[in-house]
TrEMBL record:
Signal sequence, renumbered to the chain: none
Biological role stated in the UniProt entry: Converts 2,5-diamino-6-(ribosylamino)-4(3h)-pyrimidinone 5'-phosphate into 5-amino-6-(ribosylamino)-2,4(1h,3h)-pyrimidinedione 5'-phosphate.
Catalytic site positions: E52 (proton donor)
Domain of life: Bacteria
NCBIfam families: eubact_ribD, ribD_Cterm
Protein's UniProt name: Riboflavin biosynthesis protein RibD
GO MF, one example: NADP binding
Sites where the protein binds Zn(2+): H50, C75, C84
Coiled coil: none
Lineage: Bacteria, Bacillati, Bacillota, Clostridia, Lachnospirales
Residue positions binding NADP(+): A154, W170, T196, D200, S221, G296, G297, T298, L299, N300, E301, S302
This protein's record includes keyword Zinc: yes
């Protein structure tokens, strides 16, 4: 096997931690000696051993003089676990091949430095682009403490998310809807507007085995949520935060919601609408590193305007709904000129069942 193949193996190991490591990164490691993989591991779950230490734990022989391929710079700080650099030095690894840099201020180049000072040869930026693709959430969150927001929607080829009567079940096919279930596991939070809750009475949970549920965040400025909605009825099982912006005559309703297990957050802007930027700071402080924004069009528009959206994932179904009144992914009044468009950079396009998924990122401001 080549260096590239060993690193690709480390990347595929890292991916096994998807959804479980947040707000930590996904990391994979492979230990190779004399052309043989003698150990491998990945960061399985937040708070548990790092990839490198899991790789060492899998060894059945000494790793003296071996090469370690690791998708991210080994840490050198005492966090929930002791530094990986220490384990690498103790096991007398001869060479470390690293993909991504670790932007965590506690590491950020110091991991590499410690390894070099211990006489270990270090190769940096190896398959860096592929390794970086594992952790856009971590890279954003560790630097800003603000969640990475992914706006996701499903629309027809003529750009409708519902028919003129408001029906949206279903726009996309079975496979695309299953993919959304996996996406809900991947991100720590899921956010929708009250319009979607009143119209669809959704659960916003994950119905796939061995996956975890995201924290539900409902933007409900006038506190219209119904106490017999699916979301409120299941609030004891899945953390639910209802965000509101009006403060009149709501005390009793707030108390009832609290007794049903719902958390509430008063987060108004000067126009008595929800201040999404402030909300992101609050959620970031709660340890939520990523949010899947599932609409509807009004909240999507506010989120884009507030500048909180970092990535867009659009599912496009080969169908036409037509009608000037069919809902679109982003409502509001829109821009006047094409030159005023929010510009995105293309990341990926793939087919999922009969539908197409396009992923784009917003340019950093
Ligand atoms: C690694 N290998 O597999 C991961 C790393 O609180 P802790 O101890 O889990 O440390 C978390 C930090 O460690 C995280 O912010 C990031 O800088 C790094 N993650 N480092 O060497 C790993 N997951
Ligand atoms: Zn570590």
């Amino acid at each position: 096997m080549t260096d590239k193949e060993y690193m690709l193996r480390a990347i595929s190991l890292a991916k096994k931690g998807e959804g479980w490591t947040n707000p930590n990164p996904m990391v994979g490691a492979v230990i190779v000696r004399d052309g043989r993989i003698i150990g491998e591991g990945y960061h399985k779950k937040y708070g548990e051993l790092h990839a490198e230490r899991n790789a060492f734990a899998s060894l059945k022989e000494s790793a003296k003089g071996a090469t370690m391929y690791v998708t991210m710079e080994p840490c050198c700080h005492y966090g929930k676990t002791p530094p990986c650099t220490q384990a690498i030095i103790e096991h007398k690894i001869g060479k470390v091949v690293i993909g991504s840099k670790d932007p965590n201020p506690k590491v950020s180049g110091k991991g590499v430095q410690i390894l070099k000072e211990a006489g270990i040869s270090v190769v940096e930026d190896f398959l860096r682009e592929e390794c970086d693709k594992l952790n856009p959430i971590f890279f954003h969150y560790i630097k800003t403490k603000i969640p990475y927001v992914v706006m996701k929607y499903a629309m027809t080829l003529d750009g409708k998310i519902a028919t003129k009567t408001g029906e949206s079940k279903w726009v996309t096919g079975k496979e695309a809807r299953e993919e959304v279930q996996h996406m809900r596991h991947r991100y720590m939070g899921i956010m929708v507007g009250i319009g979607t809750v009143l119209a669809d009475d959704p659960m916003l949970n994950v119905r796939v085995k061995d996956k975890k549920n995201p924290v539900r965040i409902i933007c409900d400025s006038k506190l219209r949520i119904k106490e017999d909605s699916q979301i409120v009825k299941t609030a004891f099982n899945q953390r639910t935060i209802v965000v509101y912006a009006y403060s009149q005559n709501i005390q009793e309703k707030l108390e009832r919601l609290h007794s049903l297990g719902v958390e509430t957050l008063y987060c108004p802007d000067e126009r008595n609408q929800i201040d999404l930027k402030k909300l992101m700071i609050y959620l970031g402080n709660e340890g939520i590193d990523s949010i899947l924004l599932e609409g509807g069009g009004t909240l999507n528009e506010s989120a884009v305007r507030a500048g909180i959206v970092k990535e867009v994932q659009a599912f496009i179904a080969p169908k036409l709904f037509g009608g000037a009144n069919g809902k679109t992914p982003i409502e509001g009044i829109g821009v006047n000129l094409p030159s005023e468009a929010v510009r995105l950079k293309y990341v990926d396009i793939c087919q999922i069942g009969e539908d197409i998924k396009i992923t784009c990122k917003l340019y950093e401001k």
